[in-house]
Amino acid sequence: MPEINEQTAQTNATGLVTLAGAGPGDPELLTLAVARALEAADVVLHDRLVSAEILALAGPQALVIETGKAGFGPALPQSEINALIVAFARDGRNVLRLKSGDAGIFGRLGEELDALDAAGIAYRVLPGITAASAAAASLGQSLTERGRNSELRLVTGHDTEGYAEADWTALARPGAVAAIYMGKRAARFIQGRLMMHGASGSTPVTLVENVSRADQRVIESCLATLPRDAEALKGPAVILLGLAPRKATQTVFPLEALK
What we know:
alpha/beta, 2 domains
């Protein structure tokens, strides 16, 4: 189990905050550590994308509060989320801050840790399976491969300033692989930047919507048609640049079938 930050250890009257990743959505991909934290939590502050099946694992004593937002939609300001976490912990509650995927990947984890440090509140961080890993696994693909790519880039399609810039020269090289989060509305921007830096329109791209969930959808695409194909997406998606679904015949069993 991850160690509690000793520098912020408080008296027994102050609660502990656990900042955790809930994985991509399938409760079977939840770590045991996070499942136990859900069961023990007095308060669960969760993002919108945490699935209902995972939230159902919270103990009967838990106060469950959504703090997320829809893309480009209304949002609870990060400062208010930080204040909620601190207030519940100061009240002696066992607080679980639950984010989809991994809390350390585009999850504003650092901002919340800074708030806890400033308040002198003890915390621990539990990692989760990020959407890129689950999406690639669903394609029968590896995110890295000898002779193809010696690095993997995790990129966001937009940030607080709008569409996010990246090292387009590196991403445009043949064999480059990247997982692009929050890239639906930035698809045309991403296509333009990559092709401007020399990427071929035939570069494989796969869009995986609702990763690991019962309604997961895989759209095989290429850079030339990425903006058009992204328009078909309704739910949250990760864009895998440089990867196509494996063509070999596969038999895929739901994880539940293995029990």
